[in-house]
Amino acid sequence: MSSKILRIADRSDGDDFELTHALQSFQCVHAANLTQAHQVLQRENIGCILVVVNSPAESLAETLEALQAMDSTIAVAFYCAAFETPEVVRLIQAGAADCFDRNSSVVKIRKTLMGLFAAKTAIELRAHGKDPKAEPWRANLIGQSLPIQGVADTIRLVGPRRCTVLISGETGTGKEMAARGIHGASPRARRAMVAINCSALPEHLLEAELFGHTKGAFTGAANLRIGRFEQANQSTIFLDEIGDMPLELQAKLLRVLQDREIQRLGSSETVKIDVRVIAASNVDLAERVQQGRFRADLFYRLNVVPLHMPTLRQRTSDIPMLVEHFIVKICNLERLPLKRVAPEALERLCRQPWPGNIRQLENSIEMAVAVSGARELLCSRDFGLAVPADRWVPLTVFSDYAPDIPEEKIHFDTAVTQFQLTLLNNALKQASGNKTRAAADLGLNRTTLIMKLRALNAVQAE
Fold it and tell me: What's the CATH code, domain 393-461?
């Protein structure tokens, strides 16, 4: 599906802060004019187009018409810091999706652009004979990267089937979200999915939890209990951490999968069930089969359709969208005004290794929202991001920059500003004016370097 924005502007460093921050949630392809835009549209799958101008002009309507002629299925939005109402009305009437100015918030820009992506996706689905309204399950899978699109494609294929699915992946990669996506894409979605963690209960309790028990079946069984498999009749059961299931219980599960019937503990009566099974494991089940810790016949019965969830390290382009999703989710739960992430903090979040994957990212965002208090902007320190070891440099490197303190004293903030400007300008000089290369030499992204230069020059000019 389309996951890129075509950004048309004659200068790449002319964006206001709000727009720059909003666009960090998306993958952008740049063009300086309509000729380059046409070339991009021919080779890239574009989700929407954003035209950035320094001042409104009569020719914007002509630009819109030209872009619509290139591909009428792609929505076109405009950004101008000083848009006036008549020009906005003219563009909207001509078919522009929206017009932003310096007063447009980051949240509004992002939500609008994401809506345009959704509209383009709906058009693509209809072109392939699919009803976009039939995919509400896609809301469980946040992101537009190729790995997550591959997961969505598999779910789209196997969702309507009855086949068993085995989901693999590291802890925190969203295996349960994928299971809920499969259930939501199936005809069984009208009934609730039943989930159980196979590593959370001891063996005797897990068996009773799965299959139920009669009154007096064991000490403490005071009443008849319906098991999870019966609860999932005509629906889906999700067996998480299946690799931790005891071997004796694996044999009973295999019989259930083969015969589609269960026996409650303490009863000889068999109960027929119609249930779809989705299992998940964060360990290599094939390796456990070799070790004798997992039954080979059960593994083959479960592994009808394998689905592997990518790590967050394999889909770093989705991190800005995930951050936005979790901020909205957490702020809504806590009934707080929406917060936003500083560009430098978002850049740092995208560079983190995230061994705990999406779950760790969500926990980090929840911490940031909590410790930021009433402050709207979330900074690196709110996420507990330490300075990486490779970002420290010996103080001797800066010995030539450090001035002696004169008798008349110096102003600390002024000295720091001059130091930063010197460092940035020297990096640009060393990179022959190439801002992308200078930013890389300093461990920054290009946008951050540009914003720092603007801010420092403004301070020095005061």
Answer: 1.10.10.60
